[in-house]
């Protein structure tokens, strides 16, 4: 890792510390957190929160970190929460992250030194056009970076320190929540909303600076387990029903026009994330996404019809089709609490950016929190190209996110 430059801000110093800790979650584990190593970062965060004077910081048995920035206003101000997740995606390794800092970016492609075949191409990453003169943080190309969502974690931590050390910034009680296992859809499974005690919340888990999102996909997971007919291949004619071939036939029948690589905007998709098998047994894991919940159910019905049709050709084999709800579109709830988004828009504007409201082709902990009764839109954290070794974030965008958090705390107090 490059030696930190004297100009590096507190948020960047924190971010570089946090990405060095492997916190990848594991969808095959039933534990919460799914990997104990997520607690390694949780323990560090608690230590740092205590060090800046937040006395109630603690981590629960599930790896969730809770803390409070006490109110310093005489007004009755709604309690707001800022939330980020500590885990990184299972899609690509997050072990041994070696960040590099491209200082004073001049434009053009960024070659990743650990694997020169991996290049962050300006043509493929149009957001780089807005980063001229900024400091870009990437990996060496052999791991993901972890800006999703350690950028959000670092930004909340840096903002908390600013609020603690600057009592002239008036604000109500602010709750901090760091969750585990967000990347595998379990981020708030074990969050105690009663203990959290917030009325409104914000996840710092978005991308481009200035963006705020009040709508997500509705999302389910589908697990298909296939039991075939196994027999010695020398005597298999007319008798063997190979489970892996059945699984391959199902995946091969998925409509290409309903894949992530062929959809955009408000179009949903069906996406296989896992495929494994032997002669006797095979497994397909899929995620199904749509902004409209009725369309989500319709996509699952079409998927089930494909499975049933394929299975009819294999009368000796059986399969199970299990749908698990992951999260739901939060817009319906947020529309009933317009001040939550309005205050964030004003904070972004006061920090010198043009607010960009939009929808997430994905989900956040805020999706679940909102449907659990805690309205929670998503604010930018500055990262790009999530879940890949091409992931990057700029120092300046993280600093803008810190300023937005601080300004948002001030606005809630002003408007109380």
| CATH homologous superfamily classification of the largest domain | Zn peptidases
In the CATH scheme, the class of the largest domain would be Alpha Beta
Uncertain segments are 1-8
Q: From the coordinates shown, what is the CATH architecture of the largest domain?
A: 3-Layer(aba) Sandwich
Structural class: alpha+beta
**Termini gap:** 45 Å
| String of helices and strands | HHEEEEEEEHEHEEEHEEHEHHEHEEH
Q: Quick check: average pLDDT?
A: 95
Helix content: 25-40%
The domain tally reads 2
Radius of gyration: 23 Å
Beta-strand share of residues: 15-25%
Stated plainly, the CATH topology of the largest domain is called Aminopeptidase
Biggest beta-sheet profile = 8 strands, mixed
Strand order across the largest sheet: 1-2-8-3-9-16-10-15
Shape verdict: globular
List the defining traits of the structure above.
416 residues; alpha+beta; Aminopeptidase; Alpha-Beta Plaits; 2 domains; 8-stranded mixed β-sheet; 10 helices; 22% strand
Task: Please characterize this protein's 3D structure.
It is a single chain. The chain is an alpha+beta fold and 416 residues long. It has two domains: 10-216 and 329-414, 3-Layer(aba) Sandwich (Aminopeptidase); 218-327, Alpha-Beta Plaits (2-Layer Sandwich). It contains ten helices and 17 strands. The protein has helices spanning 10-19, 38-51, 147-165, 193-196, 243-252, 293-311, 331-334, 338-350, 365-371, 395-414; strands at 58-59, 65-69, 80-85, 100-102, 110-111, 119-120, 136-138, 174-179, 200-206, 211-216, 218-227, 269-277, 281-290, 318-327, 356-360, 378-380, 392-394. Strands 1-2-8-3-9-16-10-15 form an eight-stranded mixed β-sheet, sandwiched between helices. A four-stranded antiparallel β-sheet has the order 12-13-11-14. A three-stranded antiparallel β-sheet has the order 4-7-17. A hairpin with a 5-residue loop joins strand 1 and strand 2. Helix 1 crosses helix 3 (147-165) and helix 8 (338-350) packs across helix 10. The radius of gyration is 23 Å and the shape is globular.
